[in-house]
User: What shape does this take?
Amino acid sequence: MNFLRFGLRRLAEMALTLLAASFVIFGAMYLAPGSPADFLLSGRSASPAALEAVNRQYHLDEPFAVRYFRWLGQLLHGDFGRSITYRTDVSRLLADRLPSTLLLVAMALVLVVVVGLVLGRIAAVRGGAVDSTILVTTTLAVGTPSFVAAVLLQGLFAVRLHWFPAGGTGDGFVQMLWHLTLPAVALALYLIGMLARVTRSAMVEVLGQEHVTVALSRGVPRRKVMGRHVFRNALGTVLTTGGLIVSTLLVCTVLVESAFGVGGIGQLLELSITTKDFPTVQAISLTMVGLFMAVNLAVDLAHPLVDPRIALAPRRSPA
Assistant: This one.
C-alpha cells in the first residue's frame, strides 16, 4: 500500500514539475534576443505585410499567455508543433533522432555503472598502490570534459589508428553500436571517474563501521563481508548519484553528438537553438526534463530494495 501511495504521490509531483518546467521552457525561449521571423526571412528586409504574414502563420503576433496555453493544449494531445527550420512536425523529428540518443546514453550508462563500480570496489578492497593508481586515474578522468575526450578519442582511435568510425551512426543496429562506441566512451569517461570515487569513499566509510569489524574478527570470510555488508551498504550512497549521472549524460550528449556527427536530439537541439527553432527546442527540453524525472523516480523506487531501512513513505507516529 505504501508503494502504491508513494508512486501516485510521485506521479502527481512529476505532473506539477512538468507543468512548471513547460512554463519556464516556453517563456525562456521568448526572452532570448531575436525571433524566428528573422531566421525565416534570412536577414532580408521585408515589407510590413510579409512580416505580419510570418508572425500570423507561427502565432508570433499573439499575447504570451495565448501562445503558451495553445502550446500546452497541443502537448496534451501529443502535438509538439511544427519545426520552423525543417518545416515538418517536431514529433517526427524526435521519433527519427531519439533512438540514436537513447542508445548512446544507454551505452554510456552501462560503461559508467560497470567500470565505475568495479574500479571503486577494487580501490576500496585492495588499498595501497592499487588504490593510489585508481585515484590518480579517476582524477584525470574527472578533470577531462566530454568534448575534450571526444576530440582526443576521435583523433587517436578514428583518425590515426582507424579502429572506429570518425562519426555518423551507420546502417542497422550492429553498425550503430559500432559507430556509437567512441561517443559512448567520451560521454562516460568523466562519470566513470566520479562514480568510482563515490563508490570507493562509500565503501571505505562502511569498512570503518563496527559491524564490519565484528564480522571480520569472528572469522567471516573477507570476500563475504565485502559483498554482503560493505558493498551492499555502500550501494545506497552510490544510488543517490543516479539522477546526477543521467542528467549529466543528457546535457553532455549535445557536445558529444556534435563532435561525432551523431544525428540525435543533442545535435538537433544545438542546431535548433542556433536557428531560433522555438517548437523544436521546447519539445527537446521538455523531453529531457521528463526523462530526468523518470530516472529519479526509478532511483527512489530502487532505494528500498537496496537498503530495506529506507521507507517509501514516512510512518505515522502512534497516537
Q: What stands out?
A: Residues 2-76 form one domain.
